[in-house]
Amino acid sequence: MFEKKYSYEDFLEIIAILRGENGCPWDKVQTHESLKPCMMEEAAELVASIRIFDRTGNPENMIEELGDVMLQVVMHAQIASEEGLFTMEDVINEVSRKMVRRHPHVFGTGIADTPNDVLVNWEEIKKEEKKDKDWIESPLREIPIELPALTRAVKVLKKIDKHYEKGSSYEEDTAAICELAEALQNCDPQAENRKVEEILSNLLLRISDVARIKKIPQEQILMNKIDDLIDKYE
Question: Which candidate, 2, 27, 4, places its Cα nearest to that of 15?
Fold first, then answer.
């Protein structure tokens, strides 16, 4: 007996049934808001599955976690469809149009000979697309507050450097890091936490700026270091 192979269309129908009148009590009551933590957790688990694949060469967990992320996307689209807002077809159409629009060197007459050329063109096209969008307050407010703080810090620093004023140099940052580390070392242990917090926050921001300049994914390298620490004891 062969196990049934489900298609993309089957999956859409399964989610619609789960949300339907005779569906699952849990799925039926979910909203865009209630599913936010689920999407964040599933995205993190997908990233973890890539790490597991790199270590083991086994893609089984990645397949599962990609499915879980897809589940979240389809759930949101199903809820939106029930609300009369948009459908999964609208989502697929919009992202397809975006990919064609942002790759004129593939689908049009644009030129991009290097990965960096692609990124430059991407940002320029994205900037044009974002014009007059009422949900965008400013270049800095556009960066989601839901991002991890270290990731958000680098994005904010990059946009400040691009839109407002030139950012600090590597030398300026490293000198400031040394000064802040010295200030932290000399801080009175009995001092209020507020003083320590101020020094630490400035130190973290300077470290984030070094990560920006050197194009180092600090969230990832910190996770790797934490994992090394766990391996040391387990």
Answer: 27
**CA dist 167 to 41, 58, 158, 159, Å?**
33, 42, 8, 9
Helix 193-214 vs helix 170-185: angle between axes, to the nearest 10 degrees? 160
Contact residues for 58 (Cβ-Cβ < 8 A; gap 6+): 52
pLDDT (tens digit per residue) in 121-176? 998 998 888 887 777 778 888 888 888 999 999 999 998 998 888 889 999 999 99
Point out the domain boundary residue: 42, 68, 86.
86
What is the span of the domain harbouring residue 70?
9-86
Contacts of 212 (CB under 8 A, 6+ apart): 154, 157, 158, 161, 167
Q: What is the pTM of this model?
A: 0.79
The yes-or-no verdict on residue 1 having pLDDT over 70 is no
pLDDT given for residue 2 in this prediction: 65
Work out the burial of residue 33: count CB atoms within 10 Å of its CB; fewer than 13 is exposed, 13-18 middle, 19 or more buried: exposed
Number of independent structural domains in the chain: 2
CATH number of the domain where residue 203 is located: 1.10.287.1080
Q: Please tell me the distance from the alpha carbon of residue 17 to that of residue 19, in angstroms, as a whole number.
A: 5
Annotate 63-98 with DSSP letters as a single string: HHHHHHHHHHHHHHHHHHHHTTS--HHHHHHHHHHH
What pLDDT, on a 0 to 100 scale, did the predictor assign at position 95?
Answer: 97
Each residue's pLDDT tens digit, 169-225: 999 999 999 999 999 888 877 767 888 899 999 999 999 999 999 999 999 899 889
d(CA 63, CA 57): 13
Domain assignment present for 124: no
